[in-house]
Amino acid sequence: MQWNVLAASLDAAWAVVAAGVLDFGAPWHLPTIATVDRQGAARLRTVVLRDCDPARRQLRFHTDSRSSKASELAADPRIAVHANDAGRKLQIQLAGRALMASADGAGQAAWGSARLGSRACYAVEPGPGATIAEGGAYRLPADEAGILAGSAHFLAIEVTVERLEWLQLHEAGHRRAAFDWTGTAWDGRWLVP
Ligand SMILES: Cc1cc2nc3c(=O)[nH]c(=O)nc-3n(C[C@H](O)[C@H](O)[C@H](O)COP(=O)(O)O)c2cc1C
User: Fold this and answer.
1) What is the pLDDT of residues 89-143, one digit of tens each?
2) Ligand 1: distance of its center to the CA of 46 in Å?
3) Domain boundaries of the chain, sorted by first residue
4) Atom of ligand 1 at shortest distance to CA of 50?
5) What is the pLDDT of residues 34-50, one digit of tens each?
6) Whose alpha carbon is nearest atom 19 of ligand 1?
7) CB-based contacts of 126, cutoff 8 Å, min separation 6
8) Rounded CA gap, 38 and 41, in Å?
9) Are 129 and 138 within 8 A, CB to CB?
10) What is the CA(191)–ligand 1 centre distance, in A?
């Protein structure tokens, strides 16, 4: 099986990640991303995987520039991404660096690719994470012009992956491997599960 061949397992792991972009039911459609906050504490949250390009080692997520994750990544671009595919008994962990692209810059195509309904959340007022008097005390845009004004808060988070680790659970013996990007190639090794 592919999980017994180190080099083949790297492509197989990337294929599982990439399939999550379009497979809404797949665990890799909704991975968890970790950032480091200003106190050095880990912060985790679910996001939608919008794009994955294994050849370029890149992933893309979308977020609001007013969110905690946006300011955390601006201060420290290190990011970790995780999902466990229970059906495949396969955990994949990625780590890398994030660059943020706004809708009036390098994130223009990403903003253009988002459905109108999805764009509405970038126009929420007050911004994500603001304290409000009661649960419903926030406003979403009432019309298309209001939705499009949310582009000012849109960010595409472009992640370049520098490390990939997978863990395959199997009755015949679990397998685990890690790959680091050396600058020109992936350097892989087996690990004790
Ligand atoms: C299923 C699901 C999908 C989500 N997708 C996104 C997303 O793509 N981008 C995003 O910024 N937040 C997304 N969220 C909300 C985040 O998990 C998080 O609650 C919010 O962005 C605030 O995070 P922060 O304060 O750590 O920045 C999603 C939440 C859930 C439950």
Assistant:
1) 999 999 999 999 999 999 999 999 988 888 999 999 999 999 999 999 999 999 9
2) 5
3) 2-112+154-191
4) 8
5) 999 999 999 999 999 99
6) 45
7) 132, 138
8) 7
9) no
10) 32
User: How far apart are the CA of 122 and the centre of ligand 1, in A?
Assistant: 12
Counting from 1 in the atom list of ligand 1, the atom nearest the Cα of 43 is 26
Tokens of 90: 């396969």
Question: Global pTM?
Answer: 0.97
Give the Å distance between the CA of 161 and the centre of ligand 1.
20
Residue 2, pLDDT above cutoff 80: no
Domain 2-112+154-191, what fold?
Pnp Oxidase; Chain A (2.30.110)
**144 membership: H or E segment, kind and range:** helix 144-149
Collapsed DSSP state (helix, strand, coil) of residue 125: strand
pLDDT greater than 80 at residue 183: yes
CA distances from 158 to 14, 107, 132, 180 (A): 16, 9, 31, 19
Query: Cβ < 6 Å from ligand 1: which residues?
Result: 30, 43, 45-48, 61-64, 67-69, 128-129
Atom of ligand 1 nearest to the CA of 46: 17
